[in-house]
Design a protein that fits this description.
single chain, 3 domains, four-stranded antiparallel sheet, 421 residues
Amino acid sequence: MSPSVPGPRRTSARDRRVFSETWWGQAWVAALEDSALDAGRLSRGRTYARQGMVGPVTIAPGQATAPVQGSRPCPYRSSVHLPVLTSPQWDVLLDAIVARAGHLAALLDGEMPAELADAAHQAGVSLLPQPTELAPDCSCPDWGSPCKHAAALCYAIAATLDTDPFVLFALRGRDRQEIFSQLRARRMETPEVASPQAPVGIPAAAAYADWAADTLRWPDLPAPAVHAAALPLAPPPGSGLANADLEHLMADAATRAARILAGDTASLHLTQHQDAVRIAASSPGPEWFHHLIQNTGAKPTAFARLTRAWRHGGSTGITVAEQPHTPAPTAVAAARTAVTQALTEMTGTPFPLRAWRNRLTLTGHGVQLRLGPDSRWYPYLHDTADGEWWPAAPADTDPVAALTSVWHRQEPATDSSRPAR
């Protein structure tokens, strides 16, 4: 009876992440490991890659090659081959990129959109390698598939894919410059699609007039004012409230009611914590500010920072201060380009910008722009005293205008090791 050949064995997810942090890089590793027949050679290949035994990698259509140092003084010549896409397959892939503007923006930002790979796969085009497509080769005498040297090369390529997904496109047959050229040609050749004939209707102004005529009209209300006369009764003993406190609350309630009747219902959805910040932002005085901090259990500095956020942006300003989010990559990429260009024009020196989720940070200069859910950019300045970012000016739909509003107030950061979050 002939000895049985051990089947392929996948490494753990943790081991795959050692060489790749992105989903597309890990997909490359998975394709390699699914096609391997010897887990021992894969293990030795990972060790070689960790030890830096793989030399400079040369990427060409259909193959990647590199010298890999083995047990002998002269390194072996290892390679891995991947089928290039045919012209019809490239047409499908390029059409998928053009179909959504966010795909190209993500690729330029070093990201491989999962939706792009899925759309291409559904159309019959495999951008990511399949286990049967990877064909390793090596000049060493080992007949393994792959040998440890070729396996080391494949793991090294996975790490390269993390930072530049266009390497995968180059292996499939077309480099970055060629892809951009063909995408530009596609956009120029795309015919203008005629808008469908709009149904016959009535002018919008007339429709609104008909609606308004049948809608309940609230009477015009006078602007609320602080009560000048003394209240008929004193506050209950032990309540901690004074007449001035009740007058302030009454005026605040009247102001909110007038805004609600006018259609501004934003204050109806505030939490108790947010409403306390709103009251503090109306400058009721230091004693009220102190009581609000005590009754909400907030930290004084954090509460003061949120109060300033409210003054610059209302409830949305608080959301921007407290909750980072991940906006569309195109919005951040466009703002990053505009701000970089404006800084270069203003100073004559390029400044590095660090992007993290909805935040653009001018590294080393204490300025940060945050994109809010209202599509406006909120400027922040770094306080070297407490190491926190503070709202610094009202938001603007133009990131360059938001930057300019605080540029004259910026100070060089003193701790460049602090994460820009």
